[in-house]
Amino acid sequence: MELRRLGKSDLKIAPLVLGGNVFGWTADEATSFRVLDAFVDGGFNAVDTADVYSRWSPAGGGASETVIGNWFKAHGKRDKVVLMTKLGSEMGEGMKGLSAKYMVEAVEASLTRLQTDVIDLYQSHRDDPETPQEETAEAYERLVKAGKVRAIGASNFEPARLKSALDISAAHGWARYNSEQPLYNLYDRAGFEAGLQQVCIENDVGVIPYYGLASGFLTGKYRSEADLAKSPRGRGVKRYLDERGLRILAVLDEVGANLKATPAQVALAWVMAQPGLTAPIASATSVEQLTELMGSAALKLTDQDLARLDWASSTELA
């Protein structure tokens, strides 16, 4: 399995990251265990979650981390996983943000739920304009020195804020953001490509985009509004059902047919092939789904394939 270095860190990950947002939500614990086992047994190693998963469900915040922690305890595979989690999103009762005081509380809570002594990649889930970036950077440095965190990353940052955070860390010689987690897929391209991609490339920041399959739209599962009821995530897909979205699906079908690959595999392989990208994040609620997604790492798109997909996803045609 090809391993890609994450930014300037010592972390090396396979070209597909397993998203833990469904654990304890649309995948119960037993199913989550099977998916995690299959992922690691398939030669992959990076699992991404967050403390806030799944606050929007009956399971509540911390559910995903708890499932992963229970899996570590039951199956003993902690040493086979590059464990990624995030903090900063609203957990309720004012528990949010990137203040030094809250970060100490948040990391201990995550470590407890995850049943581990160290988080491999600890990420700011979103920017916190109310806390000075220097305070956040220094707090991360302390967590790294304390051995609670190996490397740090950012998520959902604007280009200028990511660059300023990197500059502050460099000026003080502190731990720096070695990854950025943006929304990015064949449909959602503009935000990342408008400036963030260049900042990441120029500063050697790894990129692990979420929603690599656009909430499942790029699997081809949703092709009309009648299909939206197929999944609890279906309501988030409606915005993709436009002329451009359907054009992308048509070319995914075309390229997939030539390569004997599914639309999901082609969509993820496209992300893997983009400049500066380390590995897309994708989630699965069954081993069958996961097996399909893992096939994307072995798929090699030709220049012609990439050009066709770029054409289909162009906003200038919409």
Automatic annotation (TrEMBL):
Coiled coil: none annotated. This is Aldo/keto reductase. It comes from Phenylobacterium conjunctum. Pfam families: Aldo_ket_red. Transmembrane segments: none annotated. InterPro entries: AKR (IPR020471), AKR_Detox_Biosynth (IPR050523), NAD(P)_OxRdtase_dom_sf (IPR036812), NADP_OxRdtase_dom (IPR023210). The lineage of its organism: Bacteria, Pseudomonadati, Pseudomonadota, Alphaproteobacteria, Caulobacterales. Residues 15-310 form the NADP-dependent oxidoreductase domain.
